[in-house]
Design goal:
588 residues, Glutamine Phosphoribosylpyrophosphate, subunit 1, domain 1, Rossmann fold, 8-stranded antiparallel sheet, 7-stranded antiparallel sheet, globular, binds fructose -6-phosphate
């Protein structure tokens, strides 16, 4: 949530660099944006506007010459979407500019202390620039910023610059902050794509750390007040992976990436997988947790562990997980699933588990993310950058890796690999132009419906929930997923003639039951879209998927990702940037 990006270096077009780089972070928030830079005379210039950075004009920025600039794209938390509330925030004396991602919990206390009349926005962030300016009456820029970072409560990654200063200073607690390093150039950002075209060498800042970028960076531990060394890490994403190429939207590109990403997800060090399997077998209580799509993946994995490995694991959404702390002991294992590796609720769940001495295994997509670094064991799903807000390829990669681990627990790692390699090849075949055209026709048929219901059973029940999230978030059609057998206990009352109902069916032991439930819907006049490896007379549309055995959730969810995408486009929405949402949810 919120993207921040700053540049300091030898190039003299810093304002343009941060303006362009910010576009790569737009998925983090897109209600307003702003850019600030240091002018030749040492003063600070600033531009901020409501709207999306991708639609903004560079006028007044592109020609500005500076070696130091910062930019921000906002997902509003405190204060509405107004120009005043957009970042950067310049202190009332005009000396300090700040960009921030996170929530400052004690901002009201500071506003009261400094005097409400000093503040021009409704944001929590403005206290940072005001406080630094205030403390600079007695301290230098670095000392003042350090003092502020220590006093703030809540989660933050902020970057500050000051008039007459040739350095930028940043600090983090709970929100991501990464320093990209290139000979004589420094890029500070919430996420790597902002500077991927310049460098792949990075320093990850950890919580309670601060960096002062002068001629070169100096890192500090805010807790011990001491200077520290940081390791330079080379990340293996390439800039092309973070671009949408010939595709109209990132969401479509990322759906199509699934031709390759399943294979990448299961291409893991076998020894590590076997070690994790052993850990799962020996753990006293295994829990799965994640948010949104990641949570639905965990729910499906409950079935994988049960069916494949005869092992009981418990799922709880990360936002609900803390309440289960009574069940956690040092021998427990928590498995968390997170694409971004920055989701606040996931981090909180991990914190609760760790406080009880339990171990945490994470599956993440973003190398070096907070979740990855906070885990006892971490596996990368290797899906490459996922930029569309709606998670697609990350979800199927997470499913594939958890299914592989379930096979390893059952002592059948090679069988799992074989199944998933076969599934990946089936997906490659399925995602052909004819298939896409057909899904678009289905979307065309239901695009004017106000409601859509999706049913699934066993591991396809969580996929029905996931399908609903996809349709809701990008097309704004009311969509709900149900366990197929629950319809007759209430939800079937919602169905009237013509209501689109999607059945996610597999060639499995529950196939007969879900077909009966589909027929029951048909009998009430529902318009049935069957996603199945076989045709059935109840289907008005048949979306043919391969028979993937226990991997059926992976192949069944992909057509619904496409359906959601086409519904979004047909309704004139932007699938990459759904309203009210942001890609990385770093607030609780
Ligand atoms: C939905 C979606 C979200 C995320 C959720 C968790 O399409 O993308 O529901 O799955 O916000 O995010 P991560 O996986 O980054 O922890």
């Amino acid at each position: 949530m919120c993207g921040i990006f700053a540049y300091k270096g030898s190039r003299d077009n810093a304002p343009e660099i941060v303006f362009e780089g910010l576009k790569k972070l737009e998925y983090r928030g897109y209600d307003s944006w702003g850019v600030t830079w240091k002018k030749n005379d040492g003063s600070i210039s600033l531009q901020k506007q409501i709207g999306k950075i991708s639609e903004a004009s560079k006028e007044g920025i592109i020609d500005e010459k500076s070696h130091l600039a910062m930019s921000h794209t906002r997902w509003a938390t405190h204060g509405g979407v107004t120009q005043k509330n957009a970042h950067p925030h310049l202190s009332s004396g005009g000396k300090v500019a700040v960009i921030h991602n996170g929530i400052i919990e004690n901002y009201e206390e500071f506003k009261k202390r400094l005097g409400f009349e000093r503040f021009r926005s409704e944001t929590d962030t403005e206290v940072i620039s005001e406080l630094i300016e205030e403390y600079m009456k007695d301290l230098n820029f670095e000392e003042a910023t350090k003092k502020v970072a220590k006093e703030l409560k809540g989660r933050y990654a902020f970057i500050a610059m000051a008039t007459g200063e040739n350095r930028i200073i940043a600090a983090r607690r709970g929100s991501p902050l990464i320093l990209g390093v290139k000979e004589g150039e420094y890029f500070l950002a919430s996420d790597i794509p902002a500077f991927l075209q310049f460098t792949r060498d990075v320093n990850y800042l950890d919580d309670e750390q601060m960096v002062v970028i002068d001629d070169k960076p100096r890192f500090y531990d805010l807790l011990t007040d001491s200077e520290i060394e940081k390791r330079l890490v080379t990340i293996d994403w390439n800039p092309q992976e973070a671009e949408k190429g010939d595709f109209d939207h990132f969401m479509l590109k990322e759906i199509m990436d699934q031709k390759e990403t399943i294979i990448r997800a299961i291409d893991q060090n076998e020894e590590a997988i076997l070690k994790i399997a052993e850990y799962i077998k020996n753990a006293k209580g295994v829990f799965l947790s994640g948010c949104g799509t990641g949570g639905k993946v965990c729910m499906a994995a409950e079935y994988f562990f049960s069916v494949v490995a005869n092992r009981h694991v418990n799922f709880a959404p990360a936002s609900e997980f803390p309440i289960y702390h009574h069940f956690l002991i040092p021998e427990s294992l928590l498995i968390v699933v997170s694409q971004s590796g920055e989701t606040a609720d996931v981090l909180e769940a991990m914190h609760v588990a760790k406080e009880k001495g339990a171990k945490v295994l994470s599956l993440v997509n973003v190398q070096g993310s907070t979740v990855a670094r906070y885990s006892d064991f971490s596996l990368l799903i290797n899906a490459g950058p996922e930029k569309a807000v709606a998670s697609t390829k990350a979800a199927t990669s997470q499913l594939a890796l958890l299914l592989l681990i379930a096979h390893a627990v059952a002592g059948k790692l090679q069988d799992g690999k074989k199944l998933l390699i076969e599934t990946a090849s089936q997906i490659n075949d399925m995602l052909n132009p004819r298939f896409l055209t057909y899904i678009k026709e289905v979307a065309d048929d239901i695009v004017h419906s106000d409601h859509t219901y999706i049913i699934g059973k066993a591991a396809n029940y969580p996929m029905a929930l996931e399908a609903a999230i996809k349709i809701q978030e990008v097309s704004y059609i009311h969509a709900e997923g149900f366990p197929a057998g629950e319809l007759k206990h209430g939800p079937i009352a919602l169905v009237s003639p013509g209501t689109p109902c999607i059945s996610l069916i597999a060639e499995d032991e529950v196939k007969g039951d879900i077909i009966n439930n589909t027929i029951e819907l048909k009998a009430r006049g529902a318009h049935i879209i069957g996603v199945a490896p076989f045709r059935h007379e109840s289907f008005d549309h048949w979306i043919r998927v391969p028979d993937a055995g226990v991997a059926s959730p992976i192949v069944n969810v992909i057509p619904i990702q496409l359906l959601a995408y086409y519904l979004s486009v047909l309704r004139g929405c932007n699938p990459d940037m759904p309203r009210n949402l942001a890609k990385s949810v770093t607030v609780k």
